[in-house]
Amino acid sequence: MAATVARAPSPSLEAAASGALSARRNYPRSRTGERGAQLLRFGRPSSGRPPSGSGRLEADETFDKFLSRTAPSHEEVKENIFDKSAAEPYRHEAQYMASHISIAPPDAKLELTLKDRRNRPLPAALRPQALDVLEHPLRSLERGGKAPSGHPSDHFYDEAAARAPPQPIPAATQKHENEFIETIEKSLRDGHLEPALWDQYAKRAEELLITMSLEKVLRVLKAFVLARYRSPGVYTHIGGELAKEVRGASSTRLCQVLHWLSRAGLRDPTLMTLMGNEILLRLNDDFVLDMYIEVLNVHAKLDTRNPRLTTAVQRDLTPLFSELGRDQVCALAPLTVMNVLSDQGRVAYLSRCAELGMGLPARMTRPAVLRQFRLLEDCLRLDYHPTTLPNIVQLWLANLKSEADAQDAIEPAPLTPVEEDILRVLREEMDIAVTPTLQDGVLTVHLVMGKAILEVLDPYGDYFVTPAMGGQRLLRADTKLRQRLLWRRGWRVLTLDEDEWTRLTDDIYKKDLLEAVLLGGGGSRRVPQHPGGALEQP
Q1: pTM check: above 0.70
Q2: Using CA atoms, how far apart are residues 538 and 122, in angstroms rounded to an integer?
Q3: pLDDT 10s per residue in the chain (538 long)?
């Protein structure tokens, strides 16, 4: 039977029909959190259909067993055994969240502190004594009014007068300064060198130095140096005044000051530092070759070191050694060559001396120049300096020594009055065989007793003036070099201060002093400052 049955269209067909007309699809959406909660609640289904009641229970048990079998424990996830879990700080947090936290209400109290800053006078018992002074206005800050009442300078402030330059030194003071300088220079020319007279000059100089200019201070220093004045007090005052004038002095004046400081033996580290820093700033401005040499000579004579200055001077001077003339070569002292120059500078200087043939031939060289280079040859041969010299320098030194020993006849220097008195006591009172003078190469030795010699030290010529050393006496650099050369030649050097001898008036005390010096048991015997250890005891 053919029959036609009319069916209602299914939803899927309707959706397919509508899909042909539009490409948009509507899908049910679910969140990741809901999906995870569903899995934890029902377990993962084995098929696409939702699990039934019995299957859900079986899935829950299977998942719990799976978690218990595979999930790591708390102890297994620790990196170190002593680590705490991330939830450890919040372990007791539930105790505080479960109960109510109450804070005590503040006290109904308000405390106010009032400070009375009104300008009321303090009671006499509480008023300090210095408060009256502090309440007075400072004149340096009060530029518009006048000084407090009762002040000696009770006048209105004058702004124009405040900007005026310093007033010159009064004419009467300048007249006294000029008269004093002319007096000491006249005494020096006439030969009036009595210590008592120059003691009075030193006292007067200390009063007038504070207002003198640099030129006048330099003239005073020159006069006292040429008079061989021995008291260090006036040199200390002169050094203090020179330190104030260093900055405004010309370069020529600075070199003149250095020269006379070295002649005086004023070893003031502060003054030398100030002058060294000022010279270091001017080296590239107006310093010439002779000034470079003078700076090095002064540092050698005063036995001071300004490393930055000496290094800068040698850096500029060493390339110029090959161009020095004879007079410039002679201007560099042997002490400077040995104690200040570096190895490179020493080789360059000696090479120039060898090229010029300084001191050769000996019979045609001035005695002072010949003895200067003989002393330099002794220093290079006897004093220890590990410098490798070129062959031309070694040949020059050998020829200089041979010709000078054969042709240079040096007359020994005579004994001083103090040395003659010591010779008398040694011969008459102590019955010791003494040779008064002996010439050993370029050096003259006095009071020779076998291989021992007695050196009388001059308090002016053999010691530095050291204002910052509390009276400590330091041997000058040239005296130390002489004693070191004598020691290298095999002499045993004993020293005696001249002023210690002149204070004694009786031969008995003089004899006791000489016995103490000779036996090494006391007195003024001082071991020479040489690098070779102690001397043998008699």
Answers
A1: no
A2: 82
A3: 444 444 444 444 444 444 444 455 555 555 555 655 565 565 555 444 444 444 454 545 677 788 777 777 766 666 676 666 666 666 666 666 656 667 777 777 878 887 767 666 666 776 666 566 556 655 555 545 455 555 555 455 455 555 667 778 889 999 999 999 999 999 999 999 999 999 999 999 999 999 999 999 999 999 999 999 988 899 999 999 999 999 999 999 999 999 999 999 999 989 999 999 999 999 988 899 999 999 999 999 999 988 999 999 999 999 999 999 999 999 999 999 999 999 999 999 999 999 999 999 999 999 999 999 999 999 999 876 777 899 999 999 999 999 999 988 888 899 999 999 999 999 999 999 999 999 999 999 999 999 999 999 998 889 999 876 666 789 999 999 999 999 999 999 999 999 999 999 999 999 999 999 998 844 454 433 333 333 333 3
251 with 292: CB under 8 angstroms?
no
Q: Is the CA virtual torsion 160, 163, 165, 167 positive or negative?
A: positive
Whether 264 contacts 465, CB under 8 Å: yes
Q: How far apart are CA 514 and CA 423, in angstroms?
A: 11
What is the DSSP track for 354-402?
Answer: HHHTTT-SGGGS-HHHHHHHHHHHHHHHHS-------HHHHHHHHHHHH
* Cβ(291)–Cβ(275) below 8 Å: no
Instruction: Please give the Cα distance from 85 to 276 (Å, whole number).
Output: 72
Q: How far apart are CA 534 and CA 86, in angstroms?
A: 78
What the block records as the tokens of 256 is 């003149």
SS3 content of the chain, % helix, strand, coil (to 5): 55, 5, 40
Coil, helix or strand at residue 176? helix
For residues 42 and 60, is the Cβ–Cβ distance under 8 A?
A: yes
Q: What does the CA dihedral 402, 405, 408, 409 come to, rounded to 10 degrees?
A: -170
DSSP per-residue codes, 465-522: B-GGGTT---B-HHHHHHHHHHHHTT-EEEEEEHHHHHT--SHHHHHHHHHHHHHTSS
